[in-house]
Amino acid sequence: MNELSVPRPNNLDAFWMPYSDNKYFKGTPRLLARAEGMNYYTPEGREVLDGTAGLWCCNAGHGRREIVEAIQKQAAILDFAPTFQLGHPIAFEAAARVADLTPDGLDHVFFTNSGSESADTALKIALAYQRARGQAQRVRLVGRERGYHGVGFGGMSVGGIGPNRKQFGAMLPYVDHLPHTHLPAQNAFSRGQPEHGANLADHLESLVALHGDTIAAVMVEPVAGSTGVLVPPKGYLERLRALCDKHGILLIYDEVITGFGRIGTHFGAERLGVAPDIMTMAKGLTNAAVPMGAVAVRNEIYQTIVDGTQAGIEFFHGYTYSGHPLAAAAAIAAIDIHVREDLPGRVRAIEGYWEDAAHAMRSAPNVIDVRNHGLIAGIELAPREGAPGDRAMRVFRRCFDEGVLIRVTGDIVALSPPLIIEKPHVDRIFGTLQDAIHKEAA
């Protein structure tokens, strides 16, 4: 165990924290100083069981020695090299390792540094492809209500979570949205994919009727995570795929959350049986040890863009840190663990126990829905009158103080533990959550 002593900061003012109530936190800080396996530790040494894999990202657990050593070794060999008109071997190796896991035919990988960058990159690839194939009128992008695709202006525009957009005025032009798939009156307390709602994909026909042949791409999450775990209805993705094919529209999956084993296969596309044209990823790609994202594209998309340019740069896009050597080393080491320990198989082995534990929450006060798929669960609570989000936030704070980290979005508790979780961890997560919900019953 790493016994590094981590002091408590003596000044919390300088760091403007993301997606946080800064005023509350800096008056009542909850700090994490160390992590190992399934646990975080506070500066005082108190153990906190991680029920969220950090932010959906530490799929192999924390502090994996193989990843740490790979980063250390690479830093000593090559700390940085540009990938604009140059290359370094480990970036190519990392891309090949990612392509080994993606669905058949998605064999070309563009590296980014986050899920947000991956989303914007995927949208730009879609537009570039449509232009390269002689469909330059296809400039419109379609997302989905309650969708989350990061915080860049492209992903935010295509995304459909209101609070993420309302402070920032105008979004990208030429964007439209499909309806979300949340149908609580019909699908409440579904186990896995709900029965009702496949017909919601047919709204794409209405958008085509409205916009004609100007739609370049549709972007959706296979399982919507940040909005509170919305699992696609049976047949929904199949219908969306068929409609995209019918109308010459690219289908983009945002697999930042569902990638790298989260629902029991390498990517959600495999488990759900419907492949996209373009796929974004991040988070589990490096087990979050170094920031990195990626976009995998169907071979025909890559070839159309690259071969369609006679000479020079084919795609005017990229990042200083695309394929960063340390990130590439972390990705290779994380993928080695993913394959060697069969993390998707571990998910499938325990997901039934996880599902039963999640749905046992149905009897807790104010629980109005439970949703799950693989090692994801959403527990939706009835909001307090006049104070939406207050009940869940108080549950979050109670759980942390009792040694379990959960995540809340609105009045929904979202759980996504490291994929190395075992049954005693499951029992402790849901037992602690059950107690906290009871204490916030009033």
From TrEMBL:
<dbReference type="InterPro" id="IPR005814">
    <property type="entry name" value="Aminotrans_3"/>
</dbReference>
<keyword id="KW-0663">Pyridoxal phosphate</keyword>
<dbReference type="GO" id="GO:0016223">
    <property type="term" value="F:beta-alanine:pyruvate transaminase activity"/>
</dbReference>
<dbReference type="GO" id="GO:0009102">
    <property type="term" value="P:biotin biosynthetic process"/>
</dbReference>
<dbReference type="InterPro" id="IPR015424">
    <property type="entry name" value="PyrdxlP-dep_Trfase"/>
</dbReference>
<protein>
    <submittedName>
        <fullName>Beta-alanine--pyruvate transaminase</fullName>
        <ecNumber>2.6.1.18</ecNumber>
    </submittedName>
</protein>
<dbReference type="GO" id="GO:0030170">
    <property type="term" value="F:pyridoxal phosphate binding"/>
</dbReference>
<dbReference type="InterPro" id="IPR015421">
    <property type="entry name" value="PyrdxlP-dep_Trfase_major"/>
</dbReference>
<keyword id="KW-0032">Aminotransferase</keyword>
<dbReference type="Pfam" id="PF00202">
    <property type="entry name" value="Aminotran_3"/>
</dbReference>
<dbReference type="InterPro" id="IPR049704">
    <property type="entry name" value="Aminotrans_3_PPA_site"/>
</dbReference>
<keyword id="KW-0670">Pyruvate</keyword>
<comment type="similarity">
    <text>Belongs to the class-III pyridoxal-phosphate-dependent aminotransferase family.</text>
</comment>
<dbReference type="GO" id="GO:0004015">
    <property type="term" value="F:adenosylmethionine-8-amino-7-oxononanoate transaminase activity"/>
</dbReference>
<dbReference type="InterPro" id="IPR015422">
    <property type="entry name" value="PyrdxlP-dep_Trfase_small"/>
</dbReference>
<keyword id="KW-0808">Transferase</keyword>
